[in-house]
Design a protein that fits this description.
Layout: E1 6-7, H1 29-34, E2 39-43, E3 69-72, E4 75-78, E5 80-91, E6 94-104, E7 111-118, E8 124-132, E9 135-138, E10 141-142, H2 144-156, E11 160-168, E12 171-179, E13 184-194, E14 196-198, E15 201-206, E16 239-247, E17 263-264, E18 269-275, E19 280-285, E20 294-301, E21 304-311, E22 325-332, H3 340-354, E23 361-367, E24 371-373, E25 379-380, H4 383-394, H5 405-413, E26 421-428, H6 435-445, E27 450-456, H7 462-471, E28 476-479, H8 485-489
Parallel strand pairs: 5-16, 22-23, 22-26, 26-27, 27-28
Antiparallel strand pairs: 1-10, 2-11, 3-4, 3-7, 5-6, 6-13, 7-12, 8-9, 8-13, 11-12, 14-15, 15-19, 16-18, 17-18, 20-21, 23-24, 23-25
Length: 490
């Protein structure tokens, strides 16, 4: 469903000091926009490694994310990530990005390295370059099965091999085989993603870490997600520098971030030395408000010129009388929601309860390992029942697993059996590894309901939440902490 292509290049050499070929990656720009690629780069060394190297499998209970894991003879070690940098150039509704990460094998063993990293679900990978010492290895496309076979063969033969693999729309794994003791590895990815538009504001959301995923019998390939994760409590660990330029924005001071401190330079914006523990959200206003205005952006790629023409219609607003509705609020109170996430969820529930009218009916459904509804069926939104809901909300604590399926099934099938508009609002960080099973459940049981998703926390599973809202004929929004609730939920 997600991985359709890979890339490979091999070259045999007798010493690291010799030069290596640099085949060029030449996809068309439109292909880069609409395909997700998987890459393999290979460099043959004149050294045969006798020991067998196995794929790294990180302990899912380790909370040290963002580090590269090293595997040797079944044992795991941490590689040190020396630095990470992200350069972004925005033209119109496209952002071209270069992500560069440097690691070092700090052991005295030849190892295989494995690193799981997040990307926005709409990101396209355009190219891969791996640097080992003074060598640069470039990737190109080849079929998936052949790429895996080539990587495996190169690893067993003692060659340095790099594999970038897409497991989910927003999860990629980078593997590097046969890394020498003390070696530094620089992995550079060329990326492209669209800029989103919301009420005449443009936005980039850039994930830097992963919330640990809960797996059960419904999970597809759960081993893909067994990796350590970054937490805000880490005293050390990967740090990131970001440099952003935006074509067409005359006053960079109008560019804002609700998540990070921006440093304004004459022609660019910087975010310096930040922990990789949450999404980066950057917003700026559109410059024109009339359909008669427009802007043109020209880009070049592999000798070809491409033009964007951006026209923006004016914002139309009109008063709307809301129909009577049945509102069912489904709240995730599993362990991954601990801290600011559960606080934001409680605040969002209070906000939603206060916004109910007497013509509405409602119910609350909380879940962790099991689900717990407030009422057996939806009740009128009188002050009496609202007080019950507020007390229920205040007692919510985050603990346990993330068993969403039964809670969603209850919410979609339980109804007050009236002609009210039924809205199911699903509040969660989306930290599960069985997204496909949940999406199928929503499709089968949605009926006449509308499903809205609220992604809560610093690094929610954005792809799943957007997809669930699309399948549910609703909308998706995100709340980082309790301070975001009023703006978002309204």
């Amino acid at each position: 469903m997600h991985d359709t292509h890979r890339t490979t290049i091999t070259h045999t050499d007798s010493a690291r000091a010799q030069s290596q070929p640099r085949p060029r990656l030449r996809p068309r720009l439109l292909d880069a926009l609409f395909h997700r690629w998987l890459f393999v780069s290979l460099l043959t060394l004149g050294v045969q490694i006798a020991c067998g190297l196995s794929t790294s499998q990180a302990n899912e209970n380790v909370e040290s994310t963002g580090r590269m894991q090293l595997s040797h003879s079944g044992a795991l070690f941490d590689a040190i990530q020396l630095d990470a940098g992200l350069q972004i150039s925005v033209r119109g509704l496209l952002a071209e990005m270069t992500l560069k990460q440097t690691f070092q094998n700090t052991t005295d063993q030849w190892v295989e390295a494995s690193y799981l990293f997040p990307l926005n679900e709409q990101t396209s990978v355009r190219g891969l370059v791996m640097q080992v010492g003074d060598r640069f290895i470039h990737g190109k496309i080849m079929p998936t099965v052949a790429a895996k076979q080539t990587y495996s063969a190169a690893k067993q033969a003692g060659k340095i091999a790099s594999l970038v693999e897409q497991h989910r729309p927003d999860l990629f794994t980078a593997k590097v085989a046969n890394v020498a003791p003390g070696d530094k590895i620089v992995v550079t990815l060329s990326l492209m993603m669209p800029v989103t538009v919301d009420q005449q504001r443009l936005q980039l959301r850039l994930p830097t870490t992963l919330t640990p995923r809960y797996n059960n019998a419904l999970s597809r390939n759960p081993d893909e997600l067994h990796t350590p994760f970054t937490t805000s409590s880490m005293s050390r660990g990967p740090r990131l520098d970001v440099v952003l330029s935006i074509d067409g924005v005359e006053d960079l001071a109008r560019v804002e971030s609700a998540t990070h401190t921006l440093t304004y330079q004459p022609a660019s914006i910087e975010i310096n030395d930040i922990a990789m523990d949450q999404d980066i959200v950057i917003q700026w206003p559109m410059e024109m408000a009339s359909i008669t205005g427009g802007k043109t952006f020209v880009s070049e790629h592999n000798g070809q010129r491409y033009v964007q023409i951006m026209l923006t219609p004016p914002t139309l607003s009109k008063s709307t009388t809301l129909p009577a509705r049945e509102l069912i609020l489904v709240i995730d109170k599993s362990g991954s929601m601990a801290g600011v996430s559960i606080q934001a969820a409680r605040e969002a529930l209070h906000f939603a309860i206060d916004g109910l009218s007497e013509e509405d009916t409602f119910n609350l459904v909380a879940f962790d390992d099991e689900y717990e509804p407030l009422f057996e069926t939806s009740m009128p939104a009188t002050e009496h029942y609202k007080q019950h809901a507020r007390r229920f909300t205040d007692k919510l604590d985050a603990e346990g697993g993330t068993e969403m399926h039964d809670a969603l099934t209850f919410a979609l099938n339980n109804s007050d059996q009236t002609n009210r508009l039924k809205q199911v609002v699903f509040m969660t960080d989306g930290s599960v590894g069985y997204e496909d099973a949940l999406l199928n459940t929503i499709k089968r049981q949605l009926g006449d309901s509308r499903l809205f998703t609220i992604g809560i926390g610093p690094a929610p599973n954005a792809w799943f939440l957007e997809k669930a809202a699309t399948v549910g004929r609703g909308l998706s929004l995100k709340i980082r902490d309790a301070h975001d609730v009023a703006n978002s939920v309204t």
